[in-house]
Amino acid sequence: MKARNKKPASTARRNGGGGSLDQVLIEAALGIFAAYGYRGASLSKIASAARVTKGALYWHFTGKEDFFIAVIHRVVDQLTQAVRRKITATTVEQFESEFVDVLVTWARETERRPWVLRVPLITALQAQPGAPRVAKMLRDLTRDGLDWFARIIEQGKKLGVFRADLDSSFAATEIYVNFLGSVVLEHLDRERLDLQSHANLIAKSFLANWGARPSKGARPRRRSRLAQRSRGAIARNERNGLEATTR
Q: pLDDT for 148-206, tens place per residue?
């Protein structure tokens, strides 16, 4: 029996957390978490879907929380490696092209891995009360993505692509909100929304609205005040979330 329990480990790649995951387990886990939510999922259901024994999972993970964290880190790392890259543009035109390509690539890789963003979205609300480590992990991943986009915005400001008064944190949040909203809409009505095409339009809209040369009739001061208020609201929400998960 012990040899049977160890079999999945021998064919799997080790992850940073000490557990063992292969693509079969990842796909089975994402399917179960998507179908049942975080609360309704169990290692028994995941083991059954992956056609391994439950003992094989407990050999490497202490429980559902550890397993979920390992799965999400693995699939998010795969997505991050595909999407994130250093923008090497030295001109406005080059930056604009690379900026659009980043969002389109994000959309394409999301279509290739449909549960990478959907499962964290489904889990985020359920995990808050009973799984603080999961909630913190999801929040940290989101903050890391926001920080990365904020650095991209800063790079664009230095090149003169974006306005000097544009709040980078606000802009990064707008990118995330718009993209994740598009993912939800695409999931609900694929016939109406093509994610890659929509990502292309989102990127070009941001370039136009945040450009260093605002369109006629624009009010930069008013936009700046709105950005400051939004940034304050984001900071308050983060503090409240941190307090909720550390109680």
A: 999 999 999 999 999 999 999 999 999 999 998 888 888 788 788 899 999 999 999 99
pLDDT average, residue stretch 82-91: 83
> Which amino acid would we find at residue 19?
G
Same-domain check for residues 68 and 131: no
Number of domains, the chain: 2
Range of the domain at 77: 1-83
Q: Is 80 helix (H, G, I), strand (E, B) or coil?
A: helix
**How many C-beta atoms lie closer than 10 Å to residue 191's C-beta?**
6
Which H helix or E strand runs over 14?
A: strand 13-14
Shared domain check, 227 and 134: yes
Of 20, 49, 83, the last residue of a domain is 83
Q: What is the DSSP string of 113-171?
A: STHHHHHHHHHHHHHHHH-HHHHHHHHHHHHHHHHHHHHHHHHHHHHTSB-TT--HHHH
